[in-house]
Amino acid sequence: MARRGGIIAVSLHDVEPATFERCALIRDWLNDHGVDRVTLLVIPAPDLHPFHDRRPDMADWLEECARGGDAIAQHGFQHRQSRRVHGPRQLVARLQAGDAAEFVGLDGDETRRAVLAGRRVLKLAGIQPRGFVAPGYAYTGALRATLATTFEWWAGIGRLHRAADDRTTTAPALTLGTSTRFKRWTSPGVVRAGALLSGDLLRLDLHPSDLDHPRGVSAVERVLRRAHDRSAVTYDELALR
Q: 103: Cβ–Cβ under 8 A, 6 or more apart, which residues?
């Protein structure tokens, strides 16, 4: 049952061997702030190396998190764009996701192979993801078509999509920007304001690099303190609502 204050859905992006320790620290930090359920977005094969080959302890940690109520979702395949496109689409992808716009430039067959390869890597690590989040929320038509037949849900920057009945839950993802000085300066205020304006569902994105910037940490802590009367839910749970 949701508390009287509504619900909060926190997702932790870019979980992979290089960020494992930082992600574990953020997960503990969230727990200290009363967030007992988180959606962990795992990159299956950064640099084309299966994550569990490099960090078997990360697979053990993910299993422990799942037992505690967290959801594990697939976050692309390698989280890196391998083929550039020309024109405005590449510009949008660059602004949206930087080098992480993995599926922009891939055709339908290449997209499906990448998605299924990621699922196989996660399955070998003992993980059966029910959902998918594209790196940088950079979706394409080919990716959406693939996800509709392979996952129960996928999340965009503004909505959570359910594959079974094509229903959506509208909720903008509040996220800190750290790639430029301007984003580091302005995004904490945007996150605080967005949290104040959120309705029953507050959706918050976190990245491993967020802890490097005190203004961002302070903003997120303020949001979490104000959200203490909200129930934490995962994206898996949202897809069942």
A: 76, 111, 114, 134, 138, 139, 140, 142, 143
CA angle in degrees (0–180, nearest 5) for 148-150-156: 50
pLDDT digits (tens, 9 = 90+) for 93-148: 566 656 777 888 899 999 999 999 999 999 999 999 999 999 989 999 999 999 99
Would strands 39-42 and 71-74 be described as parallel, antiparallel, or unpaired? parallel
Residue 88, SS3 per DSSP: helix
Residue that has been written with the tokens 């359910």 in this structure: 162
Output the CA–CA distances (angstroms, integers) from residue 124 to 50, 51, 52, 172, 220, in the order listed: 9, 10, 9, 33, 34
**DSSP annotation of 172:** P
219, amino acid identity = A
- Rounded CA gap, 89 and 109, in Å? 20
Q: Please name the helix (run of DSSP H) or strand (run of DSSP E) that holds residue 228, with its range, or none.
A: none
pLDDT in tens, 56-79: 999 999 999 999 999 999 999 998
Domains annotated for the chain, with CATH where assigned, are 7-238 (3.20.20.370)
- Tell me the pLDDT tens digit for each residue of 14-73: 999 999 999 999 999 999 999 999 999 999 999 899 999 999 999 999 999 999 999 999
Tell me if 73 sits within 8 A of 235, measured CB to CB.
Answer: yes
